[in-house]
């Protein structure tokens, strides 16, 4: 395994092949076994995951369970919190090149990734750890402070946060012939920056804090003309909009301001007839498709979270969204995405 993610794994195997290593070499055998672990099979389908997301999933589950009323000292939650602490990245990675004075302390998305923590996972995890009542409080707070120091040091000049790096926004690199999906860069994004705002509010940061003030400006300045926000790490404008609204609300922004109402109207006007929301990946290429697509549980939930942040939890639009989720819950108590 290389970094727990498919592109690094496949490119490493290709590099070994072109360097003359045989398929039987132990490194190649182990590499192929790691790739095979990402395969998923369902009835007549077989597909490859880009990676798995144990830390991300665990942090989201923790926050969801605590939001749902599970005690913050429940044994299962304690076990998960201590596992997360054991996975903190304490080695120096490539982020150190542009951020030489910072010390490591974040968390990664995947298994087997000890060099590339990301700010998005770190924010979600810090949000969960803040509420968890772990037995060793001193250790928890010390590791959280270490993570917070690293995260704050990763802010870009424009006030936003990228996922892995600082000011990694030179667009010319996306024009080279080998630019993978034109995504060689890691520019500051609305979704990551807004989640960080949301998390910082839970740790007592206020809008007057210099770094928070810069991020608030970054989010407001990058709202689309129709009221939504772009989302890089979730599809797409529904994702960006829900996070922007929650980040702004968490930092005390008035949800009756014109920019907030414009975002709420955008969410409301993009609800599907069945009450849900959906958005196709093609929205990244075709702006007219933003907020359009078959309804999915995740995108419906994101839209609802945006409406709730905007003070519209009791409105008819939100009610129809909730009814969509209730109708489409499966017998296991979860939701399918296809």
Automatic annotation (TrEMBL):
Q: What is the lineage of its organism?
A: unclassified sequences, metagenomes, ecological metagenomes
Domain annotation Squalene cyclase C-terminal: ranges: 52-338
Output this protein's name: Squalene cyclase C-terminal domain-containing protein
Q: Which InterPro entries match?
A: Hopene-cyclase, SQ_cyclase_C, SQ_cyclase_N, Squalene_cyclase, Terpenoid_cyclase/PrenylTrfase
Q: Which GO terms describe its molecular function?
A: intramolecular transferase activity
Q: What is the native source organism of this protein?
A: marine metagenome
Where the record annotates domain Squalene cyclase N-terminal, the positions are 1-43
Which Gene3D superfamilies is this protein grouped with?
A: 1.50.10.20
Database matches in Pfam families:
SQHop_cyclase_C, SQHop_cyclase_N
GO biological process, any: triterpenoid biosynthetic process
- Record NCBIfam families: hopene_cyclase, squalene_cyclas
Which keywords, in A-to-Z order, does the entry hold?
Isomerase, Repeat
